[in-house]
């Protein structure tokens, strides 16, 4: 069982390996120049806090179950008091209907949601041009 949401710990900044992981995902959606620009923008972006439930809704993604191996691993980290890495997002577009993209951290969002859907998750957000 995961601890109270107040006990969920977060690192001050994303892990260095999160940026190449985000770029690998974004390469499925954008050309190399835009992927590089978005990755650079994510590195420079300040940390903001967004609720787990809102991130999933804006991305149009379903909540992964707590027994998904990656979600379970993050829930285990929470249970052991280990800090999770902030997530990396690319802003959606309300007018065009383009969803928010979780460039890195989908499993962490789901694990956080399982502890409390109102969990404030630290994130960096880049904007498509």
Briefly, what is this?
This is ParB/Sulfiredoxin domain-containing protein. With 129 residues, the protein is α/β, with parallel strands linked by helices. The protein is 40% helix and 18% strand.
Describe what this molecule looks like in 3D.
It contains five helices and six strands. The chain is of the alpha/beta class. The chain has a single domain (5-126), classed as Conserved hypothetical protein from pyrococcus furiosus pfu- 392566-001, ParB domain (Alpha-Beta Complex). The strands form two sheets. A four-stranded mixed sheet has the order 2-6-4-5. Helix 1 packs antiparallel against helix 2 (32-44). It is globular, with a radius of gyration of 14 Å. The protein starts with 8 loop residues before the first strand and ends with a strand. The mean pLDDT is 94. It comes from Antrihabitans spumae. This is ParB/Sulfiredoxin domain-containing protein.
What is the helix content? 25-40%
Backbone CA Rg: 14 Å
Q: Are there runs of 5+ residues with pLDDT below 50, and where?
A: none
Strand runs, count: 6
- This entry's quaternary arrangement is single chain
Dominant shape? globular
Q: What kind of sheet is the major sheet?
A: 4 strands, mixed
| Top-tier CATH class | Alpha Beta
When the domains are counted, the total is 1
- Kindly report the average pLDDT value: 94
Architecture per CATH nomenclature, i.e. the level-2 architecture: Alpha-Beta Complex
How many helix segments?
5
Q: Kindly report how far apart the N and C termini lie.
A: 42 Å
Provide the succession of SSEs: EHHEHHEEEHE
**Order of strands in the sheet with most strands:** 2-6-4-5
Say what the CATH topology is.
Conserved hypothetical protein from pyrococcus furiosus pfu- 392566-001, ParB domain
């Amino acid at each position: 069982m995961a601890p109270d949401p107040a006990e969920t710990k977060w690192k001050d900044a994303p892990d260095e390996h999160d940026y190449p992981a985000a770029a690998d995902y974004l390469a499925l959606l954008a050309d190399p120049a835009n992927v590089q620009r978005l990755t650079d923008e994510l590195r420079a972006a300040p940390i903001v806090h967004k609720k787990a439930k809102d991130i999933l809704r804006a991305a149009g993604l379903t909540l992964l179950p707590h027994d998904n191996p990656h979600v379970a691993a993050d829930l285990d980290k929470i249970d052991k008091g280990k800090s999770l890495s902030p997530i990396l997002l690319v802003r959606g577009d309300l007018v065009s209907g383009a969803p928010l993209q979780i460039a890195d951290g989908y499993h962490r969002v789901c694990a956080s949601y399982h502890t409390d859907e109102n969990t404030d998750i630290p994130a960096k957000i880049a904007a498509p041009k």
